[in-house]
Amino acid sequence: MTKLPVADRSAVRGAALDLVARDRRAVAVVLALHAAATIAGLGGPWLLGRIVDEVSAGAGAAAVDRLALGIAACVLVQGLLSRYAQYAGHRFGERTMARLREEFVSRILALPVSVVERAGTGDLATRSSVDVTTVGTTMRDVVPTVVIAGMHLILLFAAVFLLDPLLGFLALAGLPSIWAVTRWYLRRAGPAYLAEGAATAELTEALTTTAEGARTIEALRLGADRVAYGTRRIAGVWAARRATLALRSVFYPVVEASYALPVAAVLLVGGVFLSRGMATLGEVVAAALYLQQAIDPMDRLLLWIEQAQRGIASFARVLGVGLVPPEPRGRADAPHGRRLVVRGARFSYAEGHEVLHGIDLTVEPGQRLAVVGPSGAGKSTLARLLAGIDAPQAGVVSLGGVRVTDLDPAERRRRIALVTQEHHVFIGSLRDNLAFAAPEATDERMRGALATVGADWYADLPDGLDTQLGDGARGLAAAEAQQLALARLVLADPDTLILDEATAALDPTTARRTERALAAVLAGRTVIAIAHRLNTAHDADRVAVLEDGRITEIGGHDELVAAGGVYASLWRSWHGS
Amino acid sequence: MPLRIPHPEPGVPDTSGPLRYVWWLIRRQPWRVLRGSVIGTLWMVGLSVRPYLVSRAIDDGLRARDGRALLWWVAAIVAAGSGLAWAGIMRHRTMTFVREDASARSAEVLLRRLCGLGAVLPRRLAAGDVATVGGYDIVRTSHVLTLSGPGVGAVIAYGVVAVLLWSVAPPLAALVLLGVPAIAVAVGPLLRRLERAESTYRQQQGELTTRADDIVAGLRVLAGVGGRHLFARRYAARSRALLDEGYRVGAVASWINALTIAVPGLFLAAVVWLAARMAADGEITIGQMVAVYGYTAVLVVPVWFLLEGGYQLIQGRVAARRIVGLLRLTPDRAGGPVTATAPKHPAELCDPTTGLVVPPGRLVGVAADDPAEAVALAERLGRYVASDATWGGVPLAAVDLDEVRARILVADHDAYLFAGTLRQILRGRAAAGEADPEATGAARAAGDGDDDADVRAALHAASAQDVADALPNGLDTPIGARARTLSGGQRQRVRLARALLAEPEVLILVDPTSAVDSHTEARIARRLRDARAGRTTVVLATSPLLLGHADVVAHLNAGRIVATGTHADLLDRHPGYRALVSRTGGSADGDDESVEAGRARR
């Protein structure tokens, strides 16, 4: 399995900036409101400094009342402003989250299916659930906090500079150690938090697959086995979390110990200034208090740097999906005609394990070709090449003179449809499950298509086409799901159909009936049917026998049976003789 | 006590309510939580030391113009900073341990519940729900435990500050003591509104995640037929609905966040105002006034912690409720209490509904006109549904279910293939060794050849050796969940090999060769007989190749067994059976001619 890629730091930074840039006005409003709130918040300590000075100078209760009222007003204004700032920030975060998840899903939908298959769907599922949410909450919660705290700090330090530039420089005394340890930490945090994310994803996948395979666990009594497996994933998460905790165990204390340094420096030097008359008592006290106030935002920043690391790691995983090159847009003009030609096609999934060793095949428009052969001979791989899902490493697969992989994906799917034994019923109504194959189909046509494929169960549905299907709702049996897939095919009505064991889940009688009904509806279409049930081959115009990645026989049913070769022997053994 | 994760025995969770569940998580680690409380308190009380030291530095150093005293107090400030940093990291480490212990325990009990629920689970729960609970709710719930450390610390720090204020001026202390509870009461309704909004939001978010998973799972179908844009649009519409819900949460949450800023601020203003008046009246010194300001400013942290803790508690309660909901699911035992003992030895299985009798030690074929009836029969014989089947004369429903599962195996089409190496898929991870390279290496070293003999035999019987041979590392090749990289025929044979390897006393196979070519099918039919020699096997299929190798074949028509005998017997005597299993396909409609022609040529 090839893991899906993960974006690097600079890509994450770029994408984060892009998210901000796309909501520029909202971000500006959020920043302005937060700035206003922070400035209002600074009024309190400044007025307090005034109170200290005034009281020291022997001011009366009336002056104190006025100033105290001022402090209260500042706090109220700060509270109100920050409420609207938070609300705007929250809305921005939610919007960003919505944008992220929608884009993520469109990206998933644009992925070449071969990539998804090789990576496994588990990784993708975790990215769509855990990581998108983590990025979203980070954008929603962390960004405003970092903005507020950062702004708060800037303003506090600026205030100290305004009081006395020299004291201001001193206030920066504690910062070099913070800067150094933060650099140290950030260099290590990225990979550590990525590992943590990966471990969490593995645990989630262990839980999800355990839920999916619950019946099998009961039947094969795999309970203890799955518990052991999941427990190992839990141990993995713990190991990853311990690694990040070790980093924080260095980072936090160094930063926290540094908080006291600016206050200490200002007090010491303030004392000297005071004795030389270079500053008033009120100024030094206010500076010390401002710096003490700065501890809280610094602390918050510190706390959120950690959360941001998780968010960044998740973001890298989300963006990683976008690094997979999407299906190439069509490079070719519309094909001339519908003749399907395969010339010298070779294919291997892994280096050194060639599955198809040079296939030559021509299927005339309207012809029905059956492909038979032992399981594992490469029949499904051939189907994928014909449908343009994979491109041959050597040789050509073309439709009407154009390579199928050069066709525009949407155009290709309109012309060539592939139905496999893989059945999936989407969550949603029966109508939803049919409509995506042919969005403009009427209910009448949908019911007609279901009748064509022999979906008798339609009559038993409580709400007809509106019956909810899929996860948690009415489940369809494998055979029913397969009929649903075939009904989609009838609705999509492509020129060329590739049926890869598309009726394998039906019982033989129903399968045969369905195939014949399909044949009647799809008369004139080119059909390539891969089947192990040989009556499909019997009904076809031509039969190709695929063995070990090579076509060993090709011809009409009667002709091949008469020839007494591989097909004849398959045909005989199929009848149990 | 050192933290050991994973816990060998996570214990039995209290699922009587979300907060009871959280309490259970606390009770599992009382000493660690207590240590968290102590260090949390130490740290939080320590926060009030700094303003005290600053006020002394101002009073004794700056105001008194005493350089030495100033130097001493500043040194004390730096030392206190280091002490606080130490207490801070100890608190963080302890609380991380507390949270991780809780998270691991939640994951462990969830895992055990999921494994114990069995066949009933897919009917009760969407896999997306499990992903949300596993990926999000566990962590949210653990965050509630943070309250046990700094939360307790906050309450104590609050008391200490009140005492300190009392020493300066009793009215100030009274204001602080009465003010904070008043705020808590005032914020209460807002918190409850937030809980409601948050609950709806999380619910919809879970549904949306399930949708995304659904799209991921159906990508192959979409690749074959198209219609991707429709799914993108539909997902976007739901995403917008969630966005609106998110705005609603934000409207409430932002008020709460603003209050966590404004309330302590106003509080501070009130206290400072009183203190300044006292200083103006000469009741307290300027230094004391600054100290009062400092103490109250310190109070901002505990009050903020408590409000934040309240918010976390609410989110955690929503999350814990979802965990508890999952933990409360009970398996459907498909039967009453255990009133009978299972037969000691292999015994006859009977299904009165259809009249099927399965003698012990034989290979019985069942050909059903309606495949749904065959599946229903398998479900009854395996007791996956309420069943009146009997086993050695004893009602199957009255026997201990674990014993039924241990001895009777129903191998169906959709049996799940978990991720792992092929050996692990066939044999289970425990028996095959975990995926760790050393472990697999050790397993390989321990039993090169002999250990795999049974695996190879099962693969041979299922005619699936080629599956292992085609994989780059043979049995050690990792395969993803559902084995999507294998073809349908390969998957079916792997499932069959797994079922054979389990060597159950009774094996019920549902259409085991529906996806393989006829040569392979013929091979499987032959080998299955040998592989199950002397043991009870039921094959539900219409394949003449499989049925031809059965000791007895029963024809199931319209819910009843209408004929029993050998395959050849039934072919001769029962036209209905012949029509069902013969593969001429002439029954569907009339091209019997060509079929006959084909036959004649044969």
UniProtKB/TrEMBL annotation, chain A:
It comes from the Bacteria. Its main location: membrane. Pfam families: ABC_membrane, ABC_tran. Signal peptide: none annotated. Residues 340-573 form the ABC transporter domain. The keyword Transmembrane applies. Residues 28-310 form the ABC transmembrane type-1 domain. GO terms for cellular component: plasma membrane. The chain crosses the membrane at residues 26-47, 67-85, 142-163, 169-186, 250-274. It is found in: Cell membrane. CDD domains: ABC_6TM_exporters. Keywords: ATP-binding, Cell inner membrane, Cell membrane, Membrane, Nucleotide-binding, Transmembrane, Transmembrane helix, Transport. SMART domains: AAA. It is a multi-pass membrane protein. GO terms for molecular function: ABC-type oligopeptide transporter activity; ATP binding; ATP hydrolysis activity. This is ABC transporter ATP-binding protein. It comes from Micromonospora carbonacea.
